[in-house]
Amino acid sequence: MQYVLDSPGKINLTLRITGVRNNGMHDLASLFMRLSAAEKLTFRFRDGDNVNKDLLRVHGQVVEGRNILENVLQTVRKTEPHLPSMEVDIWKQAPPGSGLGAGSGNAAALIRWLSWEYGISLPVAEVAKIGSDVPFLLEGSPFSFRVGVGERVFGDVPDVSVSFKGVIAIPDWSCDTGAAYGMADEFYREGWKLTEEEAFREALEVLGLLERQERVGLLPNDFVPVLETLHPEYGLLFQAAEAGGALAWGISGSGSSFFCLFGVDPPAGLFTKLLKDTGFVRKILALG
């Protein structure tokens, strides 16, 4: 029997770096917004007495190195060692290094299904080790404000009565998260801009403005000035969003994806033309 799962993703409506741990990991304070069906997984259990290895295939994008689902299955088998070998096809939309949490969404989708079918409950710390965005995507809520590496909920985010439409533009380049943090360390060497509490208040203000359909403009993300130094082309995307009447726009995570939000359907034809005319956007995805 073959199973089909929608795999979520995310964008960061706000993102602040609040500190660095002794082990070099950075603490974040970020307002996450869920993308309900960014990608898709199909899978089945492999039959046969001599079949004892999982088979993972990736379609649509090139993913180098160890796949995140290998980490999921390895972690789950510590609790459920008799889980049969699996054959999994991952139907990718977002390339690695795009900041949309697509790999973490793949992991969250599979973990959620295994928890339903096998009653497996992984500790949050174990889930966060698989991927920093996995705890939020596993939770299933449309919005969440999270701190640490994304594993801890901070404060209550009110329900939002409107849904946002928008566009995601994936540029020709990808962003290495480690390198982006290294550049941020240098850029903010005199100190990070906000505390967790200040970042939470900022996020609530942004969400309130968006719910009231008031223009926010460029969304707060501590990686933006760093990424603009590397890729000044982002300025053209920001200009296109403003000219297209977007309520808000920004960069998700540590890059590379740009996104913009509209209160109503975006002027799709005109806006996608503006993005394509930049000459460096390789993929455009609808949001909402």
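the 2nd protein, sequnce then structure:
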Amino acid sequence: MIETSSSGRFYHQRAEFKRCIPAFLSAHLTLFTVLWIVGFASLFLWQKNLVDGFWLFKPAVARPVPMMRPVAVNLTDFGGKGDGKTMNTEAFERAVTAIKKLRMKGGGQLNVPAGFWLTAPFNLTSHMTLFLAENAVILAVQDEKYWTLMPPLPSYGYGREHPGPRYGSLIHGQHLKDVVITGHNGTIDGQGQSWWIKHRQKLLNYTRGPLLQIMWSRDIRISNVTLRNSPFWNIHPYDCKNISITNVTILAPVFGAPNTDGIDPDSCENMLIEDCYISVGDDGIAIKSGWDQYGIAYGQSSTNILIRNLVVQSTVR
């Protein structure tokens, strides 16, 4: 009887143990699933906020802006408002004028903070750094009446798309020395969609303007910025010397964005283009020396241009 009772208790306990196993595994599987979800979410948030830290414990902090000139000023110091609605052309012009006065002291740096800075075209000056902070966007005004009209380029004769004057670029400069355009990958947005439509519908009377055009200048450096949706060519150095364009992203729709060339060195000498990503609706890079007989008459060829380590996607029709 004793042996029979012990055996009965053993089998009863074994049966109870077997019944507990599914409940035990189910509870631990639920706990494991919860921990896996939490761990994956933590990893995702950590990667997303790698620069600024884990946001549940540390608020994101804006990246400090380096001092690249003896004097630095902010666009807001001159009345700029980055709300995407206020026109900031006068703020840019006042800031550039202030930096121009510093040319004998090593120049100045114009910091564009995070925000959407709507503007008409404006000019740069020598010994100037234009620094676009992270999440800073310079927005081109879309109404062409705000865009400056300029004479045709001397090596293009009567004009590229129409005879006579042409629209200037959003950011422009002539006869400059020692100009830097850089940042924490801020953006220059040409908002070119309306220009592309009007061009296709033949509603424009003048040749469209580039996003960035520097002419008859030397010692120009462009790096760590994004250019997108240019009305026409994106970066157009014209008859310049000693130019470097590095770590730049240039974007436009591959289809439906006519003539949005990425970088067009034109009659330039001693130029480096490297480590860039270009995806545009025309040539990724087009080396030029004017146009037809006008370029021959101008007589300034493009020489000593090094291009390396690029990713390019473009459509040429």
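The helical segments are 2-48, 89-100, 193-200, 292-298. The chain has four helices and 22 strands.
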